[in-house]
Amino acid sequence: KAGVTQTPRYLIKTRGQQVTLSCSPISGHRSVSWYQQTPGQGLQFLFEYFSETQRNKGNFPGRFSGRQFSNSRSEMNVSTLELGDSALYLCASSSSPGTGIKNSPLHFGNGTRLTVT
Amino acid sequence: EDQVTQSPEALRLQEGESSSLNCSYTVSGLRGLFWYRQDPGKGPEFLFTLYSAGEEKEKERLKATLTKKESFLHITAPKPEDSATYLCAVQADAGNNRKLIWGLGTSLGVNP
């Protein structure tokens, strides 16, 4: 079974630009979550989608947005990039959303490394 | 405030030297505790889920245990390929929303 695929692997952008990251979940998984990972802050939750609906959102500014398509693939967009947005952006998929359902951990992709100059 | 703290931040062992990593948490209503392994340049890889105090899970040289306040990841006779960052995440009672609280990880190095 293919894992979570994220594209591109690396991106270099300039302040003020916008960027779109893509994530293809494991086949059959309908829940997709996005995380930002930095050395000082660790993994910070951005948002979760299930069946094309945003179920939960972290404490990030409105410049960060996402969406999910009918085939469960997801995209994340960051507009008006700032230097502080440089990070590893991770996508994770799961067979079910929310809590309390056993044996449904998150499965992560290898991330997109975004560098803002 | 819900919080997850991992210790030590970094640990270096000799091959075969067993040790434990700690994940302490303060959350309102634990729904589950997860351990992940992350190699450089890769995403976290799922290892274990623990749901209640007293529960234990094992996989090869790794054994995870859970109490009401903390979890331990015991590494028995580690090998160099066990070198990685080990992340702990706690799922608190938040209705039907998946909102994991992550620790900053323990960076483990195993010398041959």
Distance between the termini of chain A: 37 Å
- Which structural class matches the secondary elements of chain B? mainly beta
**How many angstroms separate the termini of chain B?**
41 Å
Largest interface: A-B, 26 and 27 residues
What's the topology here?
The complex is a heterodimer of chains A (about 120) and B (about 110).
Chain A: E1 5-7, E2 10-13, E3 19-24, E4 31-38, E5 42-50, E6 53-57, E7 64-68, E8 74-78, E9 87-94, E10 107-108, E11 112-116
Parallel strand pairs in A: 2-11
Antiparallel strand pairs in A: 1-3, 3-8, 4-5, 4-9, 5-6, 7-8, 9-10, 9-11
Chain B: E1 3-7, E2 10-14, E3 19-26, E4 30-38, E5 45-50, E6 56-59, E7 62-66, E8 70-75, E9 84-92, E10 100-102, E11 106-111
Parallel strand pairs in B: 2-11
Antiparallel strand pairs in B: 1-3, 3-8, 4-5, 4-9, 6-7, 7-8, 9-10, 9-11
Short description:
The complex is a heterodimer of chains A (117) and B (112). Chain A is mostly beta strands and 117 residues long.
Task: Give an overview of the whole structure.
The complex is a heterodimer of chains A (117) and B (112). Helices cover 0% and strands 51% of the residues of chain A. Chain A has strands at 5-7, 10-13, 19-24, 31-38, 42-50, 53-57, 64-68, 74-78, 87-94, 107-108, 112-116. In chain A, the strands form 2 sheets. In chain A, strands 2, 4, 5, 6, 9, 10 and 11 form a 7-stranded mixed sheet that branches. Chain A has a 4-stranded antiparallel sheet with strand order 1-3-8-7, with no helix packed on it. Chain A starts with a strand and ends with a strand. The relative contact order of chain A is 0.32. With 112 residues, chain B is mostly beta strands. Chain B is built from no helices and 11 strands. In chain B, strands 2, 4, 5, 9, 10 and 11 form a 6-stranded mixed sheet that branches. In chain B, strands 1-3-8-7-6 form a 5-stranded antiparallel sheet, with no helix packed on it. Classes of the chains: A mainly beta (117), B mainly beta (112). Chain A binds chain B through residues 4, 31, 33, 42-45, 48, 55-56, 90, 92, 94, 97-100, 102-103, 105-111, and chain B through 31-32, 34, 36, 41-46, 49, 51, 87, 89, 91, 93-100, 102-105.
